[in-house]
Design brief:
The protein has 128 residues and is α/β, with parallel strands linked by helices. It is 24% helix and 41% strand. It is globular, with a radius of gyration of 15 Å.
């Protein structure tokens, strides 16, 4: 068994697609119209057949209170692995990304937390 798909709830799918591909560097995998929404997934360019991230609309009434509570408490919705958190932090900061947590060493892991502009905090992590 392996993880095939994970999702993050986004306030605006078009804005999320721009951010996740144009800023974070993921690649579009699937874009399927589904009424007023889309089945919209992105993947790592290093693993185009690997785990997909679904940019899921935040339309369900339970989503907004959950997202708001996570952001208020500084809890990331998900975590992405990177080779070098400090380098990625510098690259993303230069692109205007807002970080809520600067690179921080936590034992064998270095993490930082960014705002995805679509209602979520996202952690980037580097394992030693």
């Amino acid at each position: 068994m392996r993880i095939h798909l994970s999702s993050v709830f986004v306030d605006d799918q078009a804005k999320a697609l721009d951010f996740y591909t144009g800023v974070l560097g993921f690649r579009l995998k699937d874009d399927v119209p589904m009424g007023h929404s889309r089945w919209l997934t992105v993947v790592s360019p290093d693993d185009p057949d690997g785990t997909q991230l679904l940019l899921e609309p935040s339309e369900h009434p339970a989503v907004k209170p959950d997202k708001d509570a996570l952001v208020a408490d500084g809890i990331p919705a998900t975590s992405f692995a990177v080779d070098d958190v400090r380098a990625e932090h510098a690259r993303l900061t230069a692109l205007g990304v807002r970080f809520t947590q600067e690179p921080t060493e936590l034992g064998p892991v270095v993490v930082a937390v960014l705002d995805d502009t679509c209602g979520n905090l996202i952690q980037i992590a580097q394992h030693a």
